[in-house]
Structure formats: C-alpha cells, structure tokens
Design brief:
Layout: H1 7-12, H2 14-27, H3 34-47, E1 51-55, H4 58-68, E2 76-80, H5 86-93, E3 97-101, H6 112-115, E4 123-126, H7 138-147, E5 151-155, E6 163-166, E7 169-172, E8 179-183, E9 197-201, H8 204-213, H9 235-245, H10 248-266, E10 272-273, E11 281-282, E12 288-292, H11 295-304, H12 334-342, E13 343-346, H13 354-366
Parallel strand pairs: 2-3, 2-4, 4-5, 5-8
Antiparallel strand pairs: 1-9, 6-7, 6-11, 8-9, 10-12, 12-13
C-alpha cells in the first residue's frame, strides 16, 4: 500500500509524455519555450482567469506575486499559523514581516473572524491558504481586505481544481484574488516531474510585472530595469504539465469519491474527526486528513498494520525556531496548535483501491 502513487499515472501517460518531451528536444527550446506559453494559456483557461505565468516553484510563485503587488521591507502580510513554512518564507524573502493568524478548526484554513484583530497600519496583504485542498472562506476574507484596502494573494499550492462559490458564481481556487499561486511539486493533484509553479491573475499590470520578475528583471536580453529572479518554468516541465492537466478533473473526481468512502466508513470511529466540506466549497482532497485525540496511539496501530500515513505541520509556524524573533509563544493560536497535535493524513491518490480504504478504516476502528 502506498501513501501516494506517483508511478502509475506516469506509466499510463508514458506515450503522451514521451512524445511531448521528444518535441521539446527536437525544438531545443528549453528555456521559456513553446510549451511554457501553451501551458500558461491552458492553465489560465482552466482556472477561468485572463493570465497565467509559469515559474520555477510554488515558493517562487508566492514571492513573485508579493513583489508584483509591491510588498517591501517593513510591510506586514498576514498568513495562517498552520501551513507549510513556504507561505511565510515568501513574505520574509521580500523583507516584509509575516503576521500569523489562527485557523478554522474544521477546515484548517485562515479564520476570517480572527483576521481583523491582527491588522495594523503596516498590513498590506493577506495570504489565505487553501489547505489540504479545501478553499478558504474567500467571501469574508475579500470583504475584510476591501474594508482595509489590502491586497489578497491566494496560496492554492494544494488546491488545483478546487471550487468556491462566490456571489453565486463558481470560481476556481486561485481566481478569486489579486493573484493565485500554485505549486506543481510532484505529489500535488497536478504534479510535474520536479519543481514547478504558476501564478494566475486577471490584472494586466500584475501579469506584466511577473513576466519581468521571473526572467532576471529584464525587458530585453540585456536590459534590466528592475531586480528580478531566475524563476522561470522549465519547458520540459511545462510539456509534462500540459499532458497531465487534461487528467486533473478526472483525478479530482476520483479523489472526492475515495474521500466520500473514507468518511462513510470512518463515521462513528471513536475519537476520530473526518474532513469537513463546507456547502460553498468543493474540496479536492490533496490530502485526506483526519483528527485523533490519541494520535500517538493511532500511529502505532497504523504502523503495526502496515498502513502508511503522514503528519503535516506538527510545529505551527509561530512556534518554529526560524520565527522565534517575532515574539510569539505557545497558546497564541490555539486552533493551530491543537490541529498540529491531532491531524494525520491517510493514503490518498486517484488509484487508491477501495479495498485498501476499507482495510484502513477497519484498522482505525477496530485496531
């Protein structure tokens, strides 16, 4: 049993991927080649936005998005205390200060009700994270951002294809804010065969800045009006992503079906909380994350029965040594700290066998 199966999708798509890679080698356009431009157009259309810019990783997507809205040293950017550290690192790389806020205990996404209390005159932006594949409460976050004249950058690294109903219209994660940032790390629902990322936006000004920022700050081969970055999406990765993008919705549907089976079989399990999907959102289950009040005991049981699992973010960001200078302490963000001590991810991928899910559920319920 595998926690995630990266081999099978590549075996199924081998002929198409091989053909795509051969075309890149034939053209030898390895940097900002034809497939990068084509993927950007296809991914923008998929997300329902005007523009997409391919970059070298999800972290670089966040960094460049922040730079594109002029975040600079001394500014403050609000991020959730419970997420992967790259969300905060991107803020730090700009010279700005990450300001942590607590999460909703049921979705693990930024709690809009807790945001206003951490806004200061130096706050310039908010980064909601669509954690584990469930969209954050963007309606309330966007309303608060408008009230305080703040920018919003979505961290959609784990939410390719997730949907949120906003003002009666279904919107893809990443398409609701000033810019949406994606990671195509190999384990993601849409994964490359290495590091890769993208930024989507409807704003031409941001798009134009991103094109310059990702390519060493240049407007022509040797003209560099701004300090930029070597953060381009590799053409080979773009070619692979173009093939795999066509399978994303089918893969997400399978993930949702398998999550539904997990939830049905685990309902009533003692001390176990299954994932929540809010009425205005469509979860894509990058991870199927349960909570256990006795996580250590559950881990021992899963190991005994050869069930793979993963614990994500056992140390929330405000308690990480890297951010100790910010002065946060234990107890500052109770929902984040409780989640860090209780969450556990079970195997989840489109090829997960239903019998395996039934077996995992029996192990959890019966020992």
């Amino acid at each position: 049993m595998k926690f995630i199966d990266l081999d099978k999708p590549h075996r199924e798509l081998k002929a198409k991927i091989d053909r795509a890679l051969r075309d890149v080698f034939r053209r030898s356009d390895f940097i900002l080649g034809k497939d990068v431009k084509l993927f950007e157009g296809e991914f923008a259309a998929y997300c329902g936005v005007k523009y997409a810019v391919g970059v070298s990783s999800g972290t670089d997507a966040l960094l460049l998005a922040l730079k594109s809205i002029d975040i600079k040293a001394g500014d403050e950017v609000i991020v959730p205390a419970f997420t992967f550290i790259a969300t905060a690192l991107a803020v730090t790389y700009t010279g700005a200060v990450p300001v942590f806020a607590d999460i909703e205990p049921d979705t693990y996404c930024l709690d809009a009700e807790k945001l206003e209390e951490v806004i200061t005159p130096r706050t310039k932006a908010i980064i909601p994270v669509h954690l584990f594949g469930h969209p954050a409460d963007m309606a309330r976050i966007l309303a608060l951002a408008k009230k305080h004249n703040l920018k919003v950058i979505e961290d959609a690294a784990q939410a390719q294809g997730a949907v949120y109903r906003y003002r009666g219209t279904l919107k893809k994660a990443g398409a609701l804010s000033d810019a949406g940032c994606f990671s195509f790390y190999p384990t993601k629902n849409l994964g490359a065969c290495g590091d890769a990322g993208a930024i989507v936006t409807n704003q031409k000004k941001i798009y134009d800045k991103l094109l310059i920022l990702r390519n060493c700050g240049r407007t022509s081969h040797y003209e560099h009006p701004v300090i930029g970055y070597n953060a381009r999406l590799d053409t080979l990765q773009a070619a692979i992503l173009r093939v795999k993008l066509k399978q994303l919705d089918a893969g997400n549907r399978l993930r949702r079906r398998k999550a539904k089976l997990y939830t049905r079989l685990l309902t009533g399990a003692d001390g176990i909380t299954t994932p929540l999907e809010k009425n205005n959102a469509q979860h894509v289950y990058h991870l199927y994350v349960i909570r256990s009040r006795s996580r250590q005991r559950l881990c021992r049981r899963l190991k005994k029965h050869n069930v793979p699992f993963s614990i994500h973010y056992p140390i929330p960001l405000h308690l990480q040594k890297a951010y100790s200078s910010l002065g946060y302490g234990k107890g500052d963000f109770p929902a984040s700290e409780q989640a860090a001590g209780e969450v556990l991810a079970l195997p989840m991928h489109p090829y997960l066998d239903d019998k395996a899910i039934a077996y995992i559920a029996r192990v959890i319920k019966n020992g």
